[in-house]
Amino acid sequence: MVDAYPPLDHEYALDRDCTTLSRHVLQQLQSFSPDAQDLSALMNRIALAGKLIARRLSRAGLMEGVLGFTGDVNVQGETVKKMDIYANEVFISVFKQSGMVCRLASEEMEKPYYIPENCPIGRYTLLYDPIDGSSNIDTNINVGSIFAIRQQEGEDLEGTASDLLQSGRKQLGAGYILYGPSTMLVYSIGRGVHAFTLDPSLGEFILSNENIQVPEHGPIYSVNEGNFWQWDESIRNYTRYVHRHEGYTARYSGALVGDFHRILFQGGVFLYPGTLKKPEGKLRLLYESAPLAYLIEQAGGRASTGTQDILDVIPDKIHARTPLIIGSKEDVSLVESFIQEEAREKEEKLIARS
Ligand code: P6P
């Protein structure tokens, strides 16, 4: 009698290899309704964009014209990398004929891209940062793409996309693709957070972590301490606290997606507070902070501006920025406690003077 594989391992291995992204989305929705099919198709398109970007990144150092700067400055006032443009155009080309979306709003485009009239139009809007952390690209350090899915509400007659200026609680789904040692796609459509790893031999994103829960507390604090001199006293006091207490460790990659991913799995807090130069912070709400806030809340964590939940912030413009404090509940609350303490002290001084 040949010792058969333990059936469980064999079946489990096959089953895992068959849990692709599109199958998982339909399982999540437990439905084959048109809406479910749409979301599954949307996620598949995002996965295709991720594969195309991952492929180019993996060979960037061997190809002409992939690395380096274009010489332009984008709407953010930031120098543009050639990969920023390539990745932005990948999302446009993948969605243009999809029939899934009516608009694409991107960090790299001042105004949303409207699907041309000769192309099929859908009800959704994709908001995305095509390459987050692009300063890392030329030195082969992790970067990512961040995305959020919203449904068009009402008429966008003037082409101002003003219906996008709503809170993050209007998001139907969100996620990111992390281009690291492996390429991972992490998403949620409101039923937990799930991670898929790209199997290049299959060309498929295969389920690798289901129902991810961020630890209530973690040792990591992730912030650019080079901005210490620009911070409000409350953030300086928080930093002094973690310097003086055992059990904290600093990790900062310069790419929000990588730093967030680490905290999602290991716990802790990422913060990009307001600075003297950028009181509203550096990170953009609609396609960076809000999608990640959606994910972290689905994973049992929190995301705050320091005084308000990120998902409750209503932007005044598409490229609005907010301070961001995101991660484990206890660690976000600890940062907020220093902000509240500072506000109390300022109020007491005002009262004392009056
Ligand atoms: P700094 C990348 O440009 C980015 O938008 C985020 O990915 C990252 O967390 C942050 O900016 C890094 O900014 O000022 O620390 O270099």
3D architecture notes:
This protein has 354 residues and is α+β, with helices and mostly antiparallel strands. It has 2 domains: 16-209, Fructose-1,6-Bisphosphatase, subunit A, domain 1 (Fructose-1,6-Bisphosphatase, Chain A, domain 1, 2-Layer Sandwich), CATH 3.30.540; 220-353, D-Maltodextrin-Binding Protein, domain 2, CATH 3.40.190. It has 8 helices and 15 strands. It has helices at 7-18, 21-29, 34-58, 82-96, 233-244, 256-266, 285-298, 329-353, and strands spanning 69-73, 79-81, 101-106, 113-114, 124-132, 143-151, 173-179, 183-188, 194-199, 204-209, 220-222, 249-250, 268-272, 302-304, 324-327. The strands form 3 sheets. It has an 8-stranded mixed β-sheet, sandwiched between helices. A hairpin with a 6-residue loop joins strand 3 (101-106) and strand 4 (113-114). Helix 5 (233-244) packs across helix 8. The N and C termini lie far apart (91 Å). The model has no long low-confidence stretch (mean pLDDT 92). Bound molecules: 6-O-phosphono-alpha-D-fructofuranose. 6-O-phosphono-alpha-D-fructofuranose is lined by residues 132-133, 135, 224, 254-256, 282-283.
Summarize it.
This protein has 354 residues and is α+β, with helices and mostly antiparallel strands.
Descriptors:
354 residues, alpha+beta, Fructose-1,6-Bisphosphatase, Chain A, domain 1, D-Maltodextrin-Binding Protein, domain 2, 2 domains, 8-stranded mixed β-sheet, 15 strands, globular, binds 6-O-phosphono-alpha-D-fructofuranose
